[in-house]
């Protein structure tokens, strides 16, 4: 398993891993097609033999049984074949999911900032689903037809080598020549259609997301014209593809027709030469059509290959990124393997954070390369101390938080927790520091299970206590099944304030000495904001708080307020000090609390 | 199935043509079988190959005709599907703009985009497959069966009996599969969502220290998902198994019964062979329907979903009030807009989002709308913007009565800045001149400057030509608001509506944005809804809303003095957090 995981490909390693199942599938797939062919073969033989009016029915007893057996056998085998194939593919998908998760896990804290646009995680999950078509639609049908190809040619070779070679040539057209031409001809247009369709997707998203602007500007007719033109351009390309696929169908069918004629000539020739019994002529001719059914779909299967490219490339790129980013930016990647000696599994309820002249710059590939994202920040946060951090987007707040969590190691200066570098704690950090951010993810399970994630071994009483501390009483009472009510996807059933309370209960259950609040009240109305903050402040008495905030409501409760700009601290002090000293602070504070 | 098909434009000639082709095709299938059987039985009887060349040639001819018919039929179906699909898309898109942002918000952007892009593709596939399949199953088996009856009654009976059995079994198994799916739907949904749910929650798991142990959960759930899927597939595949089974069994029975009668000498080999060759052809159309069943079903559903959008838009459109010919759509210092007991109820029985709102706006001034969440601020802005048709009440614009504000004349007067303005994936300049694409670069730069974008533009490598939006340079929330502001300024429209423009921004950005905005609001009618009270001090008039009603309307100074709802809102924010 280890070995297969380090393999770069996303398709081939699984052949080796599931060779048994693949072989079984192949055998069944070939048998399905063979039984269908044998049904027509024996039927043809049966009625020709019967027409010679044998004196005893027992003479055609074997073909009669054969016809029935093949008739029933084909459907049964086909049924089993499909199940075996799907089972194998689902097993592969299961492994791929674990593999993708392992790739993403070390970069967890950086995915959001690295891929700002679009739903990269959703796309990756879809990619894996897409890869099942590689096997079911492309690999399996192609392999089956190739094996059958060999079987047919060898079988004919038993009778007549020359004709076997001729048949080989016919089938080659269906299995190799047409698919190859098809792929070459359509590859470019297919790629263009795909790219154009992505463009349409963007155009449409712009239209729907910006619909109020379109409506108000009165320009939506412009949009419709432009969009329909783009659609028409794609339609022209699709038509081109369709024309080819129609002609390809016709050509393959004509090949089959000619093969049938060749078969008529060959079998009658063989029979008049006395090489085969005349009763077999019909059998040989009739078998051509069901056999052709095995070879006709190959072109389609091969033409699909470019469809998978994008998914494969994205997955491979992700995997590559996981490996390189581990060394340069994220410190956790390097430290995760080495569990630090001397950190007890149940960590003390005490943490003293000290940041001394911390500087951090992202590597050359990051935005704003060269400039320090955090530039000489010093903080001392003894246990129980509460600080607020405020600053515009891009001021370095997020980077500072990642430094404190040890996810990044400072380029200069030091970030220490209890005298040890934060980055050295690796995967033990969540025992010291918990995080409540703007949009904590609530999983698609029950409310109780979501809270339980904070500490899976917690008792029911502890869950209830955490819920109580988060003041969820009213909320729980309103739920049909109390804490056992399912969340539904992304917790749409709950309002923003309620979702934060559930996440708060989870964090409280995690019970760490330090809590990072990363703008947890963005998007909440003032009343909800104040109520939530008041709950948080009360429930976290004794804990250290590092609170990144966009408003100043509640700032008077903090031991220190820090203003950041361009990675530096430009103002710091208690609320009272800042109110007295800084006119700028007074102006801002008035926004949150206009004077009556 | 397919009753609604006949309403599509131009379907009748297409169907007639295709029916003709299917007919010719079926005749070709029958002749192809007949000539093949003739050649083979003659050869079996010892005829010379050369003598049979004519018959073999005829077989090849019939075979080719059959394939050519199929090709032309495919082309017709594809063309028709493409035409109908794009007509439907055009209709849906234009209706979408009529329904506006409220509808788009309710249905979800992703759903709508997917419906229009993929739904139309599916719908086209449906038409493309369904038309030939429908004709094929309607014509081909009947004709083949009729021919088989003229040759051999027993085989005809076997074939005719199999068909209903096959169809009944397919339906029964289909129903059983559906029932099983429904039964385990909830757990199935949870299992299938688990992976993407885990990926989206990866950051949270990391914070909780659970991200490593979660691997086991992914592995476990993936495997349960596989077992659940396999359980379903075991039943679902049964329906194609039934199709296969009865077809093959029927062909086998025909073959055996032919054989038995040939032994007795009651039949010629020619007849027997012809029937045997035709037996699989008899079932072929039904088998193709079975194979394409899911694709057609998906497409049909997508088509229906789009039809329902069109219907909804038409219903909405029927509600639209007529615009009087003498309506005066202009706004200046003397203009007046009055709302007379305007009400809005989303659901018949539900609570009213707006109730009995009567207000008068006149001239150029700044008006603030304040209230708690759910008080009806956004609904009122949407009604004023013409995105929403009120369920009761009327408007009076410059002395002329209007049923709603969705007339394009009113829309030409307003600009609208929402909480998160949408940034189009285009250049910064294009985003700014969105309402006035003909604006000169100079005017664009002036508007950008006034909106405080000068600093940003100086930093951008391409300046105003820098691509922003999806795929372009990401902007911060404050910068996005400034782009929207520049857009509003450049359009030079006299009315600006703002819905919660600064609540999500950090306080410094909010402060600066407010400083930029206030002077730009002069000489316009500005209506700003927010729950950030500080804005109210700069407003000429304040509307206080509560549960859909206007509870106070006046100057901020007056309202403070009155010590009513506004005063209490202000006081409540003075209290500290305990």
UniProtKB/TrEMBL annotation, chain A:
Transmembrane segments: 22-47, 53-73, 139-159, 165-185, 250-268, 280-299
Record domain ABC transporter: where: 353-591
Membrane topology of this protein: Multi-pass membrane protein
Residues of the signal peptide: none
Pfam family, one: ABC_tran
Domain of life: Bacteria
Residue intervals of the ABC transmembrane type-1 domain: 23-307
GO molecular function, one term: ATP binding
Subcellular location: Cell membrane
InterPro entries reported for this sequence: AAA+_ATPase, ABC1_TM_dom, ABC1_TM_sf, ABC_CydC/D, ABC_transporter-like_ATP-bd, ABC_transporter-like_CS, P-loop_NTPase, Type_1_exporter
Protein name, as recorded: Amino acid ABC transporter ATP-binding protein
TrEMBL record, chain B:
Membrane-crossing segments per the record: 52-72, 130-150, 156-177, 235-260
Family matches, as Gene3D superfamilies: ABC transporter type 1, transmembrane domain, P-loop containing nucleotide triphosphate hydrolases
Domain ABC transmembrane type-1: 17-298
GO-annotated molecular function: ATP binding
KW Transmembrane (keyword) present: yes
Keywords associated with the record: ATP-binding, Membrane, Nucleotide-binding, Transmembrane, Transmembrane helix
Annotated compartments: Cell membrane
Membrane topology value: Multi-pass membrane protein
Taxonomy, superkingdom: Bacteria
Keyword Ribonucleoprotein: no
Any Pfam family: ABC_tran
Every ABC transporter domain range: 339-572
Name of this chain's protein: ATP-binding/permease protein CydC
């Amino acid at each position: 398993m280890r070995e297969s995981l380090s393999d770069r490909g996303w398709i081939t390693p699984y052949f080796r891993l599931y060779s048994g199942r693949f072989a079984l599938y192949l055998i069944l797939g070939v048998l399905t097609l063979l039984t269908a062919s044998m049904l027509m073969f024996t039927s043809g033989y049966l009625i020709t033999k019967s027409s010679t009016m044998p004196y005893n029915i027992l003479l055609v007893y074997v073909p009669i049984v054969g016809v029935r057996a093949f008739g029933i056998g084909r459907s049964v085998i086909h049924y089993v074949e499909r199940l075996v194939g799907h089972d194998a593919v689902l097993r592969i998908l299961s492994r791929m999911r674990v593999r993708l998760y392992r790739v993403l896990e070390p970069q967890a804290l950086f995915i959001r900032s690295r891929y700002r646009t679009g739903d990269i995680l959703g796309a990756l999950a879809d990619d894996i689903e897409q890869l099942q078509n590689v096997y079911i639609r492309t690999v399996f049908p192609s392999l089956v037809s190739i094996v059958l190809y060999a079987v047919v040619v060898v079988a004919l070779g038993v009778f007549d080598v020359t004709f076997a070679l001729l048949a080989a040539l016919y089938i080659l057209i269906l299995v190799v020549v047409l698919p190859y031409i098809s792929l070459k001809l359509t590859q470019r247009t297919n790629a263009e259609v795909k790219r154009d369709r992505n463009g349409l997707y963007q155009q449409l998203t712009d239209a729907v997301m910006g619909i109020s602007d379109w409506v108000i500007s009165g320009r939506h007719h412009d949009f419709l014209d432009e969009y329909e033109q783009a659609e028409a351009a794609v339609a022209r390309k699709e038509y081109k593809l369709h024309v080819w696929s129609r002609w390809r169908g016709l050509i393959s069918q004509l090949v089959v027709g000619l093969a049938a004629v060749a078969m008529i000539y060959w079998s009658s020739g063989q029979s008049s030469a006395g090489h085969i019994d005349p009763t077999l002529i019909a059998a040989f001719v009739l078998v051509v059509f069901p056999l052709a059914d095995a070879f006709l779909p190959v072109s389609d299967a091969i033409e699909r290959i470019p469809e998978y490219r994008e998914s494969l490339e994205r997955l491979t790129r992700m995997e590559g990124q996981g490996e390189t980013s581990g060394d340069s930016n994220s410190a956790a990647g390097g430290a995760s393997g080495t569990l630090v000696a001397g950190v007890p599994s149940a960590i003390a309820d005490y943490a003293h954070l000290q940041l001394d002249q911390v500087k951090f710059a992202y590597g050359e590939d990051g935005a704003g390369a060269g400039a320090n994202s955090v530039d000489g920040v010093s903080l001392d946060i003894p246990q129980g101390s509460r600080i607020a951090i405020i600053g515009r987007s891009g001021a370095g707040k997020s980077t500072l938080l990642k430094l404190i969590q040890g996810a990044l190691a400072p380029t200069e200066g030091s970030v220490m927790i209890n005298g040890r570098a934060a980055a050295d704690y690796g995967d033990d950090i969540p025992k010291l520091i918990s995080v409540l951010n703007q949009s904590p993810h609530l999983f698609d399970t029950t409310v109780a299970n979501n809270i339980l994630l904070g500490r899976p071994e917690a008792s029911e009483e502890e869950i209830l206590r955490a819920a109580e501390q988060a003041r969820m009483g009213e909320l729980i009472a309103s739920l049909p099944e109390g804490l056992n009510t399912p969340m539904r996807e992304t917790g749409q059933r709950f309002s923003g304030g309620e979702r934060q309370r559930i996440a708060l209960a989870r964090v409280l259950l995690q019970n760490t000495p330090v809590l990072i609040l990363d703008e947890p009240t963005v998007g909440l109305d003032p009343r909800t904001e104040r109520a939530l903050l008041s709950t948080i402040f009360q429930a976290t008495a004794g804990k250290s708080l590092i609170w990144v905030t966009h408003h100043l409501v509640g700032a008077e409760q903090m031991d220190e307020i820090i203003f950041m700009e361009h990675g530096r601290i430009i103002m710091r002090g208690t609320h009272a000090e800042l109110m007295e000293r800084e006119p700028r602070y007074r102006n801002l504070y008035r926004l949150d609390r206009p004077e009556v | 199935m397919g009753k609604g098909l006949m309403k599509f434009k131009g379907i009748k000639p297409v169907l007639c043509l295709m029916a003709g082709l299917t007919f010719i095709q079926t005749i070709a299938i029958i002749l192809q079988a007949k000539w093949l059987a003739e050649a083979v039985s003659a050869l079996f009887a010892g005829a010379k190959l050369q003598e049979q060349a004519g018959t073999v040639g005829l077989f090849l001819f019939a075979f080719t005709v059959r394939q050519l018919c199929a090709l032309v039929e495919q082309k017709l179906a594809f063309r028709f599907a493409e035409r109908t699909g794009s007509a439907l898309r055009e209709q849906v898109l234009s209706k979408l703009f009529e329904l506006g942002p409220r509808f788009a918000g309710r249905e979800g952007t992703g759903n709508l985009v997917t419906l229009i892009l993929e739904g139309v593709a599916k719908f086209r596939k449906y038409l493309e497959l369904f038309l030939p399949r429908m004709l094929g199953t309607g014509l081909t088996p009947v004709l083949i069966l009729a021919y088989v009856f003229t040759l051999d009654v027993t085989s005809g009976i076997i074939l005719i009996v199999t068909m209903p059995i096959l169809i009944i079994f397919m339906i029964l198994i289909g129903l059983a599969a559906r029932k099983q799916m429904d039964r385990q739907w909830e757990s199935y949904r949870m299992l299938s969502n688990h992976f993407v749910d885990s990926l989206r929650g990866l950051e949270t798991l990391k914070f909780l220290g659970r991200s490593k142990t979660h691997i086991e959960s992914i592995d476990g759930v993936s495997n349960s998902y596989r077992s659940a899927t396999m359980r379903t597939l075991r039943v679902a595949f049964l329906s194609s198994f039934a199709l296969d089974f009865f077809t093959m069994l029927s062909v086998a029975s025909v073959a055996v019964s032919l054989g038995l009668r040939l032994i007795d000498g009651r039949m010629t080999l020619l007849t027997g062979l012809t029937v045997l060759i035709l037996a699989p052809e008899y079932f072929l159309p039904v088998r193709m329907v079975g194979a394409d069943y899911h694709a057609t079903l998906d497409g049909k559903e997508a088509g229906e979903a789009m039809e329902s959008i069109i219907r909804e838009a038409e219903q909405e459109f029927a509600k639209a009030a007529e615009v009087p010919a003498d309506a005066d759509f202009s706004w200046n210092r003397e203009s007046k807009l009055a709302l007379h007991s305007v009400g809005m109820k989303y659901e018949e029985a539900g609570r009213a989002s707006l109730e009995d709102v009567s207000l008068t706006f006149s001239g150029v001034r700044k008006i603030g709308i304040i209230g708690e969440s759910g008080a009806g601020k956004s609904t009122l802005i949407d009604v004023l913007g013409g995105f929403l048709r009120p369920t009761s009440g009327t408007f009076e614009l410059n002395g002329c009565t209007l049923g709603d504000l969705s007339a394009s004349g009113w829309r030409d007067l307003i600009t609208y800045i929402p909480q998160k303005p949408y940034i189009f994936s285009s250049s910064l300049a294009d985003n700014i001149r969105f309402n006035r694409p003909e604006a000169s670069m100079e005017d664009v730069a002036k508007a950008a400057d006034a909106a405080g974008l000068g600093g940003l533009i100086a930093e951008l490598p391409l300046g105003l030509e820098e691509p922003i939006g999806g795929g372009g340079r990401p902007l911060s929330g404050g910068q996005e608001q400034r782009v929207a502001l520049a857009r509003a300024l450049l359009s030079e429209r006299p009315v600006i509506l703002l819905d919660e423009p600064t609540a999500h921004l950090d306080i410094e950005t909010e402060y600066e944005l407010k400083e930029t905005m206030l002077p730009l609001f002069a000489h316009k009618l500005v209506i700003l809804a927010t729950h950030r009270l500080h804005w109210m001090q700069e407003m000429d008039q304040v509307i206080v809303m509560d549960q859909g009603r206007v509870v106070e309307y006046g100057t901020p100074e007056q309202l403070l003095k009155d010590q009513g709802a506004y005063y209490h809102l202000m006081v409540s924010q003075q209290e500290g957090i305990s």
